[in-house]
Structure formats: C-alpha cells, structure tokens
Task: inverse folding
C-alpha cells in the first residue's frame, strides 16, 4: 500500500502534466532534471524523486504536492474497453471519475491541433445531448477515425480546417479525459 506522501506526489505530478499538457520530457526539461525522475516514479513508487528534484519540478509547475489524505471513494473507478483507431479491441483499462457509457481509444497518430500525441488514450463518453462549441469529440467517417471540435454552428464539427456535418459522421462521443503517454 502506498503512503499518503507517495500518493500525494503521484497525484500532483499527473495533475500538473494534465493541466499543462506536458509530457514527462517537457516538464523535466523545463525544470533542469531528467524525465526518468518522473516516469520511473509514476511506474514504480519504489523510486521516489529526491526533495531537490521535487523542488525543481514544483518551481516550474507553480504548485507543490499536497500530503493530505484523500481516499478514493467506492465506485469512482470504471473498467473501460480500449480500442485502437481502427476499432480493434486492445483490452480494458481503468479510468477514474467517469461513469456511464464510456470507451477509450489509443491514438496511432498525433493530433497536433488538439495537443494529442501518438499513444495517448482518449476516454470518450457517449453524449446524447447537443455538443457545445469547443467540445472535443471522436467520430468515424468512412472507416476513418477523427478527432473533431464542435463549432458554434449546431451539428457542425471541424478539424484541420475541414468542416463536417453531424449527419455524415458516426459520433462516438465526447472526449472527457486524455491519458498521456509519459515516455515521450
């Protein structure tokens, strides 16, 4: 069982990288340390970064880890089917804090306009309501996997300056989480 301190550092690291869209390499580079200090710890808590490394990371992030005990409540973890972008089932992953009809897609190509990299995993929730401008969605068109942004025009989506009509798409759902590849 991991300690409150280890959990606090791990949660903080993931929150900082998610909030800033940083890979472990990017954050470590900004802090003047090795990305191994981050990736190794996130994979295996036996390799805890030194206080000096945490201080460097905190200075760049503008925040520090919290060491208050935060228990994970029952029912917050959901087992989700994982697919590649050709819709081949890869297995099952666990996601935290997402309920309902959910599936996940591992990206085989980068989507730079959406700050998504190869091997990022998109957690997608089926959403039967109208999408709001700026929402990121996953859709299929003619067997092609697409990441799109909802426009202010109802039932219209855009990616790479191409506008798509909802009626021409199989919309898989709203992207509610991106699980970042920490190796790059």
Result:
């Amino acid at each position: 069982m991991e300690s409150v301190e280890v959990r606090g550092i791990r949660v903080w690291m993931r929150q900082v990288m998610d909030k800033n869209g940083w890979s472990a390499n990017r954050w470590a580079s900004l802090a003047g340390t090795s990305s191994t200090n981050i990736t190794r710890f996130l994979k295996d808590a036996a390799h805890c970064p030194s206080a000096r490394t945490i201080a460097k990371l905190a200075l760049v992030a503008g925040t520090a880890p919290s060491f208050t005990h935060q228990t994970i409540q029952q029912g917050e973890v959901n087992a989700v089917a994982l697919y590649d972008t050709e819709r081949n089932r890869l297995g099952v992953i666990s996601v935290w804090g997402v309920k309902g009809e959910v599936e996940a897609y591992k990206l085989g190509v980068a989507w730079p306009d959406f700050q998504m990299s190869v091997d990022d995993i998109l957690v997608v929730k089926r959403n039967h309501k109208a999408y709001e401008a700026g929402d990121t969605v996953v859709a299929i068109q003619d067997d092609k996997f697409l990441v799109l942004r909802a426009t202010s025009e109802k039932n219209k989506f855009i990616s790479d300056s191409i506008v798509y009509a909802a009626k021409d798409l199989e919309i898989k759902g709203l992207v509610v989480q991106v699980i970042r590849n920490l190796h790059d």
User: Anything to note?
Assistant: The first strand starts at residue 77 and ends at 84. Residues 78-179 form a domain with the Umud Fragment, subunit A fold (CATH 2.10.109.10).
